[in-house]
Design brief:
There is one protein chain. The chain is built from twelve helices and no strands. By secondary structure, it is an all-alpha fold. It has one domain. Helix 1 runs antiparallel to helix 2, helix 5 packs parallel to helix 7 and helix 5 packs across helix 10. The longest helix has 28 residues. It is globular.
Length: 261
């Protein structure tokens, strides 16, 4: 893997980690388009570290305030929302990642993401109350994230959708959705880090790893800033159209075109 490929993968990881379009699904897709048998585990771990740096940088003040005043800033709600997805990812994440290498399953997952975005926006438009995050909504957000262990189903999309279904006020939901991504991404980095060190660098140079990580952090910083504004002020139908079109294309490709899979 050269520096150009590392930058492409870093940018895609950084953008799609936080946009509601699925980073894992796009990396599986890109892996097939670019002809990689696998993305080296150490490189993949470093890309996730880059996205973690990005979201911490954007929300640094909020994170500091949470640790200063955990009760006032609802640290408990964050923990509640993280637990279901964390447990599911720990026990089933590897199984589903290995299973989702075919176009049909990936296409279906993209279509699930589109459905979540559309129906949650429709539900939100019919709800009069704009609520804070409660134990009930935190649990709902946590459990709906479980479906995001499927590559092609967006974690951020599931999180945002869960909050919209529960009538959470959009401004609160915007920050909450990214705050709960921090322990989940950190957990992923820690759990894969040891295996990555054991496996080694693979066929990627140190320079490519560093540049790819920087690309992921820069793209992730932009994506978080962009999504915070979008969630607060706009609907998510544009993202739904994109992932629905991508899912439809992959189904067509699987049975007719055979370009990607």
């Amino acid at each position: 893997m050269g520096i150009f490929e590392a930058v492409i993968l870093g940018v895609v990881q950084g953008l799609t980690e936080f946009l509601p379009v699925s980073s894992s699904g796009h990396l599986v897709l890109l892996q097939n388009v670019m002809g990689f048998d696998t993305v080296p585990l150490f490189f993949d771990t470093m890309l996730h570290l880059g996205t973690l740096i990005a979201v911490v940088a954007v929300l640094f003040k909020e994170i500091v305030e949470i640790f200063k005043h955990p009760i006032k800033n609802h640290m408990g709600m964050i923990i509640i929302a993280v637990i279901p997805a964390g447990i599911a990812g720990l026990f089933f994440g590897d199984y589903f990642e290995k299973a989702y290498t075919g176009g049909v399953l990936l296409a279906v997952s993209f279509l699930i993401t589109a459905g979540l975005l559309v129906f949650s926006e429709l539900a939100a438009s019919n709800l009069q109350s704009k609520k804070p995050v409660t134990v009930k909504s935190a649990l709902a957000i946590g459990f709906i994230q479980i479906v995001a262990i499927l590559p092609g189903v967006s974690r951020s999309g599931a999180t945002i959708s869960g909050g919209l279904f529960c009538g959470v006020e959009r401004n609160r939901l915007a920050k909450f959705s990214f705050l709960i991504s921090i322990p989940l991404v950190l957990g992923s980095v820690i759990t894969t880090g040891k295996d990555a060190m054991d496996v080694g660098l693979g066929d990627v140079s140190i320079a490519a790893i560093v540049i790819g990580t920087i690309a992921a952090a820069a793209a992730g910083f932009f994506a978080v800033k962009f999504m915070l504004a979008i969630i607060r002020r706009s609907k998510l139908y544009g993202f739904a159209i994109y992932v629905a079109a991508l899912g439809a294309f992959l189904l067509l490709d699987q049975y007719v075109l055979h370009i990607v899979f």
